[in-house]
Amino acid sequence: MATSTTTKDLHVLIVGAGTTGLLIAQGLKKNGVAFTIFEAETDSTYQTRPREWGMTLHWGSSHLASCLPDHLAARFHEAYADPSLKPDAVTGLPIFNGKTGDLIMEMSADHAVRVSRKKMRSLFSHGLDVQYGKHVVRAYPIDDPASHHNGRVRLEFEDGGHAVGHVVAGTDGAKSLLRESIVGLEDAQLTTVPVNLFNFAYTFDPELSLRIREHNPIFINSIHPDHGTMYWLSIMDVPDPEKPETWTFQVMQSWNDKTTPPSADLTTNQGRLKFFKARCDEYAEPWRSVGRAVKDGTTIPMDRLTYWEKSRKWDNRRGRMTLCGDAAHPMTPRKFPRSCVTPVYKTLDPHPPDLIVDTMHSADRGQGLNNALQDASNFVSALVSVSKGSATLADAVQAYEDELLERGQTEMSISLKQSYLIHDWDTLMQSPMVKIAQAGLTPPNHLPRQPSLYDMQPFPQSTSSSRPSSIIPPTINASQFSLAETAVQSPSASHATFVRLPSTSTLALHGSLPSKASSLKRSHSTTPADERTVSFGLDELETEKLGTPGTLPDNRRLARPTLPLFPSGDSQTPSEKWTRTKGFWRSFIAMCLPLLLSALEGSVTNTALPTISESLNLGTSFSWVATAFLLASTIFQPMYSQLGDMWGRKAPMMVAVTVFAIGSAVCGVAQSGAVLIVGRIIQGLGTGGIDLFAEMILCDIVPLRKRGPYLAIKHIVFAVGTCLGPLLGGVFAELNWRWCFYCNIPVCFVAFVIIYLWLDVGGGIKSREVSVLAEFKKIDYTGTGMLTFSVVMLLISLSTGGAPNPWSHWTIITPMVLGLLGFMSLAFWERSTYCKFPIMPPHVFSNRTTNIAFALTTIHGFITYGFQFYLPPFFQAVKGSSPSQSGVEVMPTTLAVVVCAAVGGPLMTLWGKYKPMHILGFATMTLGLGLCVLLGPSTPISVWLPLQLVVAGGLGIVISTMLPAVQVKLPESSTGAAAGSWAFLRGTGSLFGVAIPGAVFNVRFNSLLATIPSPTARSQLAKGQAYQHASAAFVKSFGSKNETHIVNAFNDSLKCVWIVFAVLAATAFLLTFGEQQHKMRKQLNTKYGLKSAPQTPAITPASSAPPTRPSTAMPSSAVDHHDAEAIYPMVQIPLNLRSNEDV
């Protein structure tokens, strides 16, 4: 049963991660109320819906701000359709005669902001652990005294899972399944309205795009007098304000079905497109050109408007089951700004007009959005009162529903009437809305200018003074109004004439009922036609502090936030500006030290490999020394990302360092190739964790836009190890190759201690108080197994193809087919409902820029590792250098990578752009690798050195910009999954950068064996054994008669390898043009950041407030003003329009 609970034991279940559900979740999180949010969609990037649309945020902005945390509220401009527009750029919505193009009227639309549904959901989901793929099939209260869950509510999901909480909120849209559970299947059904709607998005040529926005930068509307078709154009996305060809518009046509010609075929897309174009030809410009610009074959979806006819008070099971947003009041569209006319929630007129006109742009979900935002704010406030013990759950939810139903039913009724009204020219032109706009009627002046909700919104003030206003009694949320009267206002009016009063039940619920509540009186003033007003007298309340009636005392001026809540640019508030704390550099050093190990081991073995291979007689298995290391470090990185999200970053990195040390010891004592490969596998397991956790830690402690210089430093550290590797490898190869591995052990010990003492990052099981066993069960073992199997099979096929068996042999074809089938099965598994926590979540691969960045990462890893793997054989076998000398000759590649990485990262941070780096880098790589075919035995240093520098320069310039490009369109909550997938693909590229060129090398070398005179040399170099003999000592051992032929065979085979690299680099270069340049985040929003990072401070408004707004004197019988602090108790909390403590 409902009881007064505390925050600790109140748990809220939210069904639906749309705008409403996510905003409720943010509001609950902000107030410390426990919750779990479920979403039936499996894609967290919200790409699965077939259409995207825009919405108009208007009067709901204050409710929005009450739930969002400061750091997200300050980023709300990211959700704008056009982030470059100022919030006051639009003051009116023009409505045209569609036939003539004449302006009928311009409805007031002060501060209307066009937002993107997808962008809002993406922003609101930041920091939330949404349970995706959870389709509710049943919801019911638990009324069983024998159950320890008695008095709660239970959800059951399609996948067999369930959840139990104290209250469930259905925010799952107009076709709500939870509504069916509450009111029954029959009563939950929607009713269709005979109004058809075309609604799609389209991108036009620059000239037409500019012409559309000349009329209005956000939206233009027209109505055709012959058939009442409404034709709406609005901006939906502006990737680049300077490039109109990138702009996307929302195009809508709606009409009453009775005007549809009998010959029209609306059942096929071809028929709908023909009908759309025919209607467009009847319109003036620019609507006519829009129709002609839409290409044949364009998909034209058609909808029928619906609403919930049986909306009424429901049984909420003592406050345990309720609805919000479209689930509670699905309504038909309306396409006008609300500021002109406000809906009647309760009228004092005993004989209200038959036709109530409310006007709010909503064909694109504007009206639904603003009402949903108020629902979310009210619901959060109700639950906060429960969490604080000031109300029972049953009373709080019932009070919330009373207001919601009163408002929602009225809104739905108005929406329905308006749907018929606006699609008939005669009805439209006779409506009060048009009369008011055309006549420019101004309300009577006996009411003063009242403090407005928009006075509290940190929007820049518009030159237009027309905006809705309301009176907010002491300590009451602006969201909790149960009463309003029609406000009549012209675009030129300086104030609105409606007021609102909280219901007595709302006041009592929150303990804020004035001591003289009985003195509240209503006074109704009769005014000329279409100018109806209402006021409420509070004559017995204290007024001695108020000064002149109708004005605010000078010492009680409204304080305005000094910074915008919804900034239109990328400026940051002081609380958002990222700064390094005292623990930053210690953590950064602790992160970088293990990287030195990883880099050292990755390069030291390459130089010494011919010697190691000969010492242990590895034969054709030589490549597995490198391949096993790379394989182990690669295939487990996606799983490591899951471990990092479970344990945090610190403990898993310490484990990875320990595993690496063990692997080094095993390699050092190896007496056979099999033991060496096992040791390399163990080493690789450690290295994979070290590399990935270093990337994840950097992402956690440095914002995306600021990350470039730190990535450059990290890559410099990595490059230092890579530079030292060939030198040490050459020295150890000549002395004792086992020290290639022994040298790692003491460094591992030092790294372990430094990580333990200095790495100060948050997150992990201990801090989250969850079961270790439960977390381990979340690991995608099936996906990891499939991934391992698939990669290993392909590597076996590619590594052994051509040597010792031909490519047509079943031992080559079978593993290749199994590997490909394995990858296909993995893709199905990761997207299936059976995989609860995929190692490579599908949402990470949901946008073009991320996918192209993944492809570039794979190619970059392929070339980077492969180029360095095949350079030593060139210098030793072709140029005749010793192992140590070849280590020096390879060093320019590493040094150039370091220098260019140190340049590329900071440039990305400076410009905020990654795409130019990618274009330049891969163009340079293509040029350098293409020219590598000129290399040969007689190539002087003046040729091979510049070629190395060109290739390495291209590799380095992009190395710091790959991961940011992957993450730029993904939420910060996806850092682990994105980094894991990125690291896996980079490692996979490295793996195949050895295997594929190795196969090409072996095939080409086998074809050149006949040119070598010595049978002994041929037998030792045949069947894939050439690489292990790629040393000057081996080549010279057969005398000068054979040396030239052997050198030429090596050189010609390596030319094929350079060609492979050049082709891939050219492919990557072409792919870069498909990337999109997106804005890079400057803030952090992660629980894994530095523990020493400061909390976001409150921002204090400027000490000087703006002058009191002008107002008109009012008689004492009108509404009395309270002082500003009493009217707005939240004004001392900027960037958070309402303090929930005031509820």
UniProtKB/TrEMBL annotation:
Residues 587-1080 form the Major facilitator superfamily (MFS) profile domain. Keywords: Membrane, Transmembrane, Transmembrane helix. GO terms for cellular component: plasma membrane. Residues 440-474, 542-577, 1092-1117 are annotated as: Disordered. The keyword Cell inner membrane does not apply. The keyword Cell membrane does not apply. One of its GO terms (molecular function) is transmembrane transporter activity. It is found in: Membrane. CDD domains: MFS_Azr1_MDR_like. The chain crosses the membrane at residues 584-602, 622-641, 653-678, 716-733, 739-759, 779-798, 810-829, 850-870, 890-912, 919-937, 943-966, 978-1001, 1057-1074. Residues 462-474 have a biased composition (Low complexity). It is a multi-pass membrane protein. SUPFAM superfamilies: FAD/NAD(P)-binding domain (SSF51905), MFS general substrate transporter (SSF103473). PANTHER family: MAJOR FACILITATOR SUPERFAMILY, MAJOR FACILITATOR SUPERFAMILY (MFS) PROFILE DOMAIN-CONTAINING PROTEIN. This is Transmembrane transport. It comes from Didymella rabiei.
